[in-house]
Design goal:
Blueprint lengths: L22 E4 L3 E5 L3 E6 L3 E7 L2 E6 L4 E8 L2 H9 L7 E5 L2 E11 L6 E10 L4 E8 L13 H13 L1 E2 L8 H4 L4 H15 L7 H11 L3 E4 L4 E3 L14 E4 L2 H6 L3 E2 L6
Parallel strand pairs: 13-15
Antiparallel strand pairs: 1-2, 2-3, 3-11, 4-5, 5-6, 6-10, 7-8, 8-9, 9-10, 12-13, 12-14
Helix pairs in contact: 1-4
């Protein structure tokens, strides 16, 4: 099921959908937001760009060229274990206002422009659900390296984490269901992923080849968006079953009016 050659660039989501409940209040220097699962304050003027699902939203700071994606899942630890296969590892641990955050910093190449984007993933797992904040910096938004002591982190990310209130919600997407598995099947797969993390490099060989043969040349899209994705795209996995549209070729998806996802580049 897992492909250990996943490209990290498949992490992010760009969709267009119907907005649901949210609150955004902007002042000259900060922007307050309030979703079902998280509320807090961004530094700068930040606009909501997508809230088509109750468990994730996307925001954009066009002046500072920063994108924020926030989401919640039942098991963010397992999700980060999957990201490990994409090269996302060695987090910095920070405790802020009683929340234990793992801070991952990596880079990805933007498919359309070839620009190198710096991506910061902030992950926090509570008893009943996990929380994720993705911060994507345009290459023009900062200079030098980025770490938890750098100017960009201290100016934009740390104040955001300090402001956050993490809420328990009743509707939490299960990672296993998003990957189309039973809980038992998912745990079996995660045992292989964790074995791989612990040094057993052969642990995923069989599942990787199985995934390749089973997925074929199919593509997934959501009926509420205009993009289609590779099935291996992590955000394609978040398409709900009622909205999922499956195409058996790239041409079929394009002829049906869908555009390629600029993140996973199908």
């Amino acid at each position: 099921m897992w492909n250990k050659k996943f490209n990290f660039i498949t992490i992010l989501l760009i969709v267009i959908g119907v907005c649901i409940s949210f609150t955004v209040v902007t002042s000259a220097d900060t922007t307050n937001f309030n979703s079902d699962f998280m509320e807090g304050t961004f530094v700068g003027h930040v606009d909501l760009k997508n809230a088509s699902e109750s468990y994730m939203q996307s925001y954009e700071d066009s002046q500072n060229k920063i994108t924020y994606n926030i989401s919640t899942v039942d098991d963010s630890v397992s999700l980060m274990d999957i990201y490990y296969l994409q090269g996302v590892m060695n987090p910095t641990k920070l405790t802020i206002n009683g929340n234990d955050w793992n801070i991952y910093i990596s880079e990805a190449i933007e498919n359309e422009t070839g620009n190198i984007l710096t991506i910061v993933i902030c992950q926090c797992q509570k008893e009943k659900q996990g929380y994720l904040v993705y911060v994507i910096f345009d290459p023009d938004s900062y200079t030098g390296s980025l770490d938890t002591n750098s100017e960009s982190f201290v100016k934009f990310i740390k104040p955001l984490l300090e402001s956050l209130k993490l809420k328990e919600t009743s509707k939490i997407p299960k990672i296993s269901e998003e990957f189309g598995m039973s809980d038992e099947e998912f745990q079996q797969q995660m045992e292989m992923v964790r074995a791989y993390k612990n040094g057993d490099t052969s642990a995923l060989d069989d599942t990787a080849s199985s995934s390749s043969s089973s997925s074929g040349d199919t593509y997934w899209a959501s009926s509420s968006s205009g993009k289609f994705h590779k099935p291996s795209c992590e955000w394609a996995q978040k398409i709900s079953s009622k909205n999922k549209v499956v195409f058996h070729s790239r041409d079929e998806a394009i002829s049906s009016g869908y555009q390629p996802c600029s993140v996973c580049s199908p």
